[in-house]
């Protein structure tokens, strides 16, 4: 794992299993709240989308930890295997605990694609673990396989969730996402990104500053009533 951003610092805790490895963004004027960001199946903690959001939300007062999921810690490339999901969820829980050493307010889980999906399953299994979910490009089903829905846990999800979804995402159409969200008893909101695919416009090293601002704004508005004031 290599540091790519001078505004963040390497975090590594091998005292827990799975270990926590990632990059912490410390806000100059903290609001006491924290957000763990996790990556998609083919990516890592240095994904441009995660870096951009971490920088934006840290500038607004959040402690942000973008972490490598356990499967990515084990191998530097490739997708997770069928047996990795439970361990990855345990890694997310450990990452929340690690971030809690810095952030003393509400704790949020955020993830792109696979990371977001595992975050929803974790919160469905352990209600109250996080104060809210930021889910980007939720992989509702594999491309061209709409019958293979990944919504079995949605009726048990009690955590408020903000979904950010591109209108050209092959993992779900807008209509499919809207129908799926009806299964969730918690407060939910869907924010569409017109013309965006599964990467939400963050391809490789390119960064959409306008888009990261929009996502941060939606996050503030959706969770605003519960976010700690700056002290």
Describe this structure in words.
- The structure is a single chain.
- By secondary structure, the protein is of the alpha/beta class.
- Helix 1 crosses helix 6 and helix 3 crosses helix 4.
- The N terminus and C terminus are likely disordered.
Binned, the helix content reads 25-40%
Q: Give the CATH topology.
A: Rossmann fold
Q: What's the order of the H and E elements?
A: EEEHEHHEHEEHEH
Q: What is the alpha-carbon Rg in Å?
A: 16 Å
Per CATH, the superfamily is Alpha/Beta hydrolase fold, catalytic domain
Number of domains: 1
Strand content: 15-25%
CATH architecture: 3-Layer(aba) Sandwich
> Structural class, from secondary structure content?
alpha/beta
Overall CATH class = Alpha Beta
Distance between the termini: 33 Å
Overall average residue pLDDT = 92
Task: Indicate the low-confidence ranges by residue numbers.
Answer: 1-6, 225-231
With helices defined by DSSP (H or I, 4 residues minimum), what is the helix count? 6
